[in-house]
Amino acid sequence: MIGSANGTRIGITGLGVHVPERVVTNDDLAQYVDTTDEWIVDRTGIHERRMITEDQALTDIALPAARAALEDAGATPDDIDLLICATVTPDMMFPTASALMANTLGAEKAAAYDLLAGCTGFMYAIAQAYGMIAAGLSRRALVVGGDVLSSILDWTDRSTLVLFGDGAGAVVMEPVDHGGFLGFELGADGGGGVHLQYPGSGSRKFENPESMLRMNGREVYKFATRVMVSSAEAVLAECGRTIDEVDVYVPHQANKRIIDHAVGKLGVPPERTVVNVDRFGNTSSGSIPLALADARTDGRLRDGALVLMTGMGAGLTWGSALIEWTAPSASGGRG
Ligand code: ACO
Q: What CATH number should be reported for the domain holding residue 279?
């Protein structure tokens, strides 16, 4: 699916993120599996990640992110009529994480649902919110992306344990008077889904249900390096823009090697690329909003900046979005 904006200016007017307090280093993980800090840093660029504690679940980290996004937008829960939570690790299948959050926040007017698209979930969710607002079904949406993959990892499998971390982010989306989303490209290849699975997590019965994440790292690596480039190029072409015009490149934070490959193939100067996989690992649906927040902290999300985001993950799925950033001070009222 690909498309450019139809003239309706819809942007991000609030951004908030949250990660668990508990820092887990590579040396910490070496107590569980046969690995080393050197191997992990060399193959992934990851130094540490955050993980929830035994008594926590997704909404414990997603709610603070959602509250921060609302505050950033100057919005109250009552202003929200749509709440989408992209996650593969909800507190439980139902009630959904989004319904639980809408209730806790007091967003009583909001339609609320969870969205499953692996690590690409946040990209799918912002495209959906865009469509709902452009169609006039929603006036102001809260889009949350977050995962606690530590809760579904096999703590004896060194090939997956070292890659992931927990984290969440949220954005408020609504009409803006300048800037806004220019286009989206989303895709899925269920044929490759077998390479990144969570067997036993749904209604399909397995002989040895272990309910843990399973991954063929080499196949996912090949897929990732391909779609991170093709999806970004597709959305740029659709919007009539070139990579030279991109001010901030926000790739999914799966592995520094995958990011470096995309940066090289696309021709993005490294200084325009946001990288925080070293501190957070792969936080799945939390990855892109966490990286956006870092770009803002760095001062890179200035008004009018052209921002390219690309995600990929389980499904297999991928997705890109191109947005002209709307900064609060310059807009004089973003709506
Ligand atoms: N520590 C030490 N050795 C390890 C570890 C580890 N943590 N993990 C694997 N190895 C070993 C392997 O067993 C293998 O040993 P062998 O040669 O004796 O069999 C050796 O290291 C090389 O393994 P490879 O799989 O070839 O290592 P590679 O360089 O491909 O790196 C990695 C593995 C990091 C997983 C890489 O393939 C990768 O990044 N893949 C993409 C993963 C990804 O991004 N997944 C997330 C997708 S998004 C989502 O939706 C969740």
A: 3.40.47.10
What residue's CA is closest to ligand 1, atom 13? 159
**Model-level pTM?**
0.95
Round to whole Å and give the CA distance between 314 and 220: 9
Domain extent at residue 98:
2-177
261 and 317 fall within a common domain: yes
> How far, in Å, CA of 298 to CA of 152, rounded?
33
- Ligand 1 neighbourhood includes 316 CB (under 6 angstroms): no
Q: Is 39 in the pocket of ligand 1 (CB under 6 A)?
A: yes
Could you tell me the distance, in angstroms and rounded to a whole number, from the CA of residue 335 to the centre of ligand 1?
A: 45
Specify if 241 maps to a domain. Answer: yes
Whether residue 134 lies inside any domain: the answer is yes
In this structure, are residues 151 and 213 in contact, taking their beta carbons and an 8 Å threshold?
no
Local confidence band at 168 (pLDDT 50, 70, 90 cut-offs): very high
CA-35 nearest atom, ligand 1: 1
pLDDT at 326 exceeding the cut of 60: yes
